[in-house]
Every structure is written in C-alpha cells, then in structure tokens.
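Narrative of activities, Objective 1.

The group set out to show that a structural description can be obtained from nothing but a protein's sequence at a throughput compatible with the screening campaign. Below is one input-output pair from the validation batch, recorded exactly as produced.
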Amino acid sequence: MENVVKTQYYSYCTGNISKGCELCVHGRKLVLFITGLCPRRCFYCPVSEHKFGKDVVYANEWKIKDPDNPVELMEEAKLTGARGAGITGGDPLSNVDRCCEYIKLLKEKFGKEFHIHLYTSLILVNHERLKKLYEAGLDEIRFHPDLDDEKIWENLKLAREFNWDVGVEIPSVPGYQEKTKELIDFIHDKVDFLNLNELELSDTQIGHYKLNELGFMPKDIISYGVKGSATMAIKLLEYAKGKKLRAHFCTAKLKDGVQVKKRIQLRSKNVALKFDKITEDGLLVRGCIYLPELKPGYGKNLDRNKMKEKLKVFYNRLLNNFKEEDILLDEVKIRFITSDKLVKKNTEVIKKLGLVPAIVEEYPTADAFEAEVEYL
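Output recorded for this entry:
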C-alpha cells in the first residue's frame, strides 16, 4: 500500500482529491437532491422509497415545497455556510432543465466561485444535455457507469468536449473487482479522477435478489459498511495508480464522522436559539413541551391544522406561568421549545397544564430529528 496515502479525513488517495471533495470533507457542500426520477435501479442504491421514482427536491434534509421557487435551497445554503453543492438524485439528467435553473440561481446568489458538481449515470448523457449543464455553470461532472453494461461507457467521451473537471464515482462492490478494473482500463485516459465509495447497506436494498446472490454482510455490528468493500477499494486504488489515474476512496467514516458532522456543526451555530445548548457533535439540547398526543412517535395521522389551533390555546395558558421570551411556539413540529433548565424546574407546573415536558437532543437540521428524548 506504499502508493496509497491515508488522509486526515479517514479516506485514502493516490493524489490530490477533486475540488468538490475538498469542500465536502470540510462540510461545505450542500447536498442537492434534484429529483428521484432515474432510468436505473441499482441493487446498491441507498435512496429511500419516499424519494426514489418521485420528482421531489431536497436541500440536505429540507424538502423544497415549490421546486419552481426554491427559497428553502437558498436558506439552507446560507444556514450551513455552504461554499458549493453536489447535485444528486435519482439521475439529475432526468430533469436537466431544473438542474440548469438551480445552478444559475446558486451562482447568482453566492458567486461564480460557488463550486457545483453533479452525479449522473451514462444512460441519459448526450451532447445537448451536457452543453446545457456546462453553459449553466457546472464546474464538475461525475459519472456513475453501470459495471454490467459496457456498451454505454463510450458516452463518457462526450464530457471532454467541455472545459470542466470530469470524474467517475462508483461504490466499491465486493465481487466486482475485475469489472471495476476493466472500467479503470477504459477511463484512465478519459477522466481527471476516480472516486470509490465504501458500499453501505440500507433499508431499501433489503431483499434485492442481487444482494442475496452476492451475500453482502455488515463489516461489524456498529456499521452499515459492507464487509470487504474497503479492502477491495485499497487494491483498486493501487491499480488506478499504476494506470496514472488519480483516485480517492471515501469511507463510511468520512461521510458520517467528518462530512455530515462538520455540516451539522456549522448549521447548529446559525439556527441555535438563545436557550439551546450545542453539543460537541453539533446537536441541540433544549427543553420541549408537547401535547400528549403529539409526543415524538405519536400523532402521525392527526389533523395538523387542528393540532396547531390546540397548541395556540395552550400557549396562552403557558404565558400565564412563564415569560413570552422564554417560550417559542414551534408550528412546524407542533410543540413548544424552551430551555432545559425551565422544563426541569417547572416539570409539575407543565404537567398540571396537561402538557408533556421533555429534554430533547436533536439535529439542527430542517427536519429537527430527535436523537434522544428524555420525558420528565
């Protein structure tokens, strides 16, 4: 492994990583899920069922309500201190016009130096679509070839008609080492870099015949990483090095422990309320007060508008006991937010009002996912 270097981000490379990856490892890349539409359904695809096959848009974890007016996209980029975006899907070329519109909007808002890369399979690649993306301002394009279909690999050559960075990014799939080497043989003089990702299991993959056929297993009891993926990736990096192809292996630890963690830390600083505490990992510790039927995990089928009206009634009751500046009415998650000290000190008062007090540790993301809830 003398030709392969371990980075400070728990990844491995044979040369400089791409500009898109440089920003990514610092948590400065916004993940722009542009559409769930895709002409392929790869057996290792991690896209959830509520996204795949649906023409929906997400900026990180924030769903864009109106794709024709993506105000949430601009707000999320600002809140996370993003200096670039990675456009993914689905296959973004399933809606290339939306891609171009968003690229232009981001460049206009944050400047030409706002770095944007895009992932796509080769099925929808043609000169016209690539020209649209290039003229919109796309900085870097990454192809995801089908290792079982060599016929469309030729479409890679079309990207060289434009002055941008070109790469190939695929998972390191145990059992596909020889086929991946064939791909490296084909691309080594046609692209600027190769990215290999550690293959991870996800709920949407379970039961796929191909997974059963290949016998994928988690590498340990605390990881979704597939056993053998990392070992194979290192061997492929060495092979790419021999072909003079710059290559980078992105581990599951880099994605979760570095990339996502840093982005969350950046966002928490911008969204934390005055009474929130921020953990080392960037999560928010706060006091929350719930309607009994709307505790985390409950109330999924209730009428949200009725619950909001009920919440407002209780808000007036809370103000009889607490200062207005100490209680925030959260109409998104239909609850009250305050300090952990306030709910601890006034647990019995809150319960007598017919409400449920709790200490919550949650992500500073748009969905405010609760990592831990302690009912008092």
